[in-house]
Amino acid sequence: MSKRELIEPNPGDKRYIRRDDQGRITESVDVGKSLAADQRQHAKYDAGRGQGDRGDRPKH
Q: Where is the composition biased (Basic and acidic residues) (predicted)?
C-alpha cells in the first residue's frame, strides 16, 4: 500500500494521490474533501504514517 502524496497540478488545486508499483496514479482525491471525510469517519484501527485516509488519527 503506497503512501498518500500531495500534488498541486494547478495553483489552488491540491490533491492527494496514490501510485501503483509502476508509478501510475491509481487514486486521486481533492484535499478539502479528503480532510472533511477523515473527520467524519470513525474507523476501528489507527492509521500509519501517510495513511490518514485509512483509519483513525489521534487528535492533537
A: 1-24, 39-60
